[in-house]
């Protein structure tokens, strides 16, 4: 959605307008296409994905990612104070991040409860002799 907003805001601008807006290098590399890059110019790649193979660590990463996205949307909203056509979708996206954070928190609590619950093992009434197979 953010890419669509950027596309709509830059649609039809000239190279000179892009240069004047500080987008000259971006325009040179990508034209007016939307290219996943941070505000600092860092391109998106798989290094941004944090998977550890541990459910608690992975869910903590998910929680952090949702909070970072929420914070980014808030900063974008602050930059676009006078444009409700941009602010309204950004507010929607921000609220969606809040809900995602809540759901990941619920998942984390569920995983923690499952991992830390006491386990009980019982043996049935098994009259096992040395050469018998247990069928209990």
Q: Can you write the helix and strand succession as a string? A: HHHHH
Give the strand content: under 5%
Tell me the count of domains. 2
Low-confidence region ranges: none
Can you summarize this structure?
Helix content is 59%, strand content 0%. The chain has 136 residues and is mainly α. It is elongated.
How do the strands and helices of this protein lay out in sequence?
Elements: H1 2-10, H2 15-20, H3 24-30, H4 55-79, H5 84-116
Helix pairs in contact: 4-5
Features:
single chain, 136 residues, mainly alpha, 2 domains, 59% helix, 0% strand
Structural account:
This protein is an all-alpha fold. It folds into two domains: 1-49, no CATH class; 50-117. It is 59% helix and 0% strand. The chain is built from five helices and no strands. The protein is elongated, with a radius of gyration of 26 Å. The model has no long low-confidence stretch (mean pLDDT 85).
